[in-house]
Amino acid sequence: MTIVRIIGVPMDFGANRRGVDMGPSAIRYAGLSDELERAGVEPVDAGDLFVPRAEERDPDASQPDRGNAKFLREIESVCTRLADEVAAALTEGAFPLVLGGDHSLAIGSMNGSARDATIGVIWFDAHADLNTPQTSPSGNVHGMSLGAVLGREGAESMAWAHAPTVSEESIAYVGLRSLDDRERELLRDSDVTAFTMADIDDRGVTSVVEEALAVATDGTDGVHLSLDLDWLDPRAAPGVGTPVRGGVTYREAHAALETIASRNDREDVVRSMDVVEVNPILDERNETASLAAELTASAFGTRIL
Ligand SMILES: NC(=[NH2+])NCCC[C@H](N)C(=O)O
Ligand SMILES: [Mn+2]
Ligand SMILES: [Mn+2]
C-alpha cells in the first residue's frame, strides 16, 4: 500500500493575508487522514516543519538584500528544509504530501521532488506564480514560486530556488485566470503550457487534465501536483487570500483530480503533491479545508462507487 507522508508547512511569509499558516491544522482537522484511508492509502503524519513566527520579523528592516521579495530569507530557510524532507520521503519510498501554508512552499517541494529526478509539474491555480522579484507587483513570494524554480531572469536573488531538472516544457497550468501584465509577457515568452479557464469552458476539465498529464509526463520521471485552493471558484472555496471569480466548480475540481487518479492507477506517474493557500481566518466553517481534504483524497483514488 502506498504510504503517504503528510508534511505540514505552517508558513505565511509568501502571502499578503495573514492566517494561511493555520492551513495545515485546518486540513488535518477536516479529516484528511480518514479521507486518505478511505482512498486506500496509508497516511503517516510527519507533523509540521518548523517555521519562525512572522511577528518577530520586520519584513523590511532585517533584510537589506531581499530586494522586492518579502521575507526572502525566512522562505529560503523553510524551503531548503522542506526540500530535504520531500527528498527523504521519496528515498524512503513514501509519497510526500505537503500541506500549506502559502504557495511559496512549492519552491521547497519541487526542489525536493526534483533532486534525484527530472519532473513535470501540474499547477492547479487561478494564478501563474511565474513572477520574479523584478516583475512582481506585490513582492509576495507566493506569486514567484515557478519563476524562481525555473531560474528566470530577474530571480538572481533566489538562486537557491532554481531546480535545473524542472523545465518549462514539462509544466502545465490548469485553470489560469489572473495574470499580472509583466507576468503575462513572461508566460507568452516561455515554453510552459497554459490551460486557462477558457480552455476548460471549451473542452471540459477532463480532457484538459489529460493533456496536462501528457505534457508533464513526457520525458520525465514523474509528476509533482500543486493544488492552490484559489483554483476553485470562491463560492466553493472562500477561505483563500487571493480569490478570483470564475474558477472551477466543486464538481469540476473533483473530476480533475479523479482524472489524475485514474491515470495514476494505470501507471504510477504522480510522485509528490502540495495543497496550499487554505486560510482558516477567511474561511466559512472550515469548508475550504474540508474541500482540500476531499480533493486530495480524490487524487489518491476515492470514488463515488
Ligand atoms: N499563490 C498565489 N495565491 N499567488 C497569488 C499571486 C498574485 C499576484 N500575481 C502576485 O504576484 O502578487
Ligand atoms: Mn498559487
Ligand atoms: Mn493562486
Automatic annotation (TrEMBL):
EC number: 3.5.3.1
Pathway assigned to this chain's UniProt record: Nitrogen metabolism; urea cycle; L-ornithine and urea from L-arginine: step 1/1
Class of this enzyme: hydrolase
CDD domains for the chain: Arginase
Catalytic reactions of this protein: L-arginine + H2O = urea + L-ornithine
GO biological process, one term: arginine metabolic process
Cofactors (names): Mn(2+)
Keywords: Arginine metabolism, Hydrolase, Manganese, Metal-binding
Family: Belongs to the arginase family.
PANTHER family: ARGINASE
Protein name: Arginase
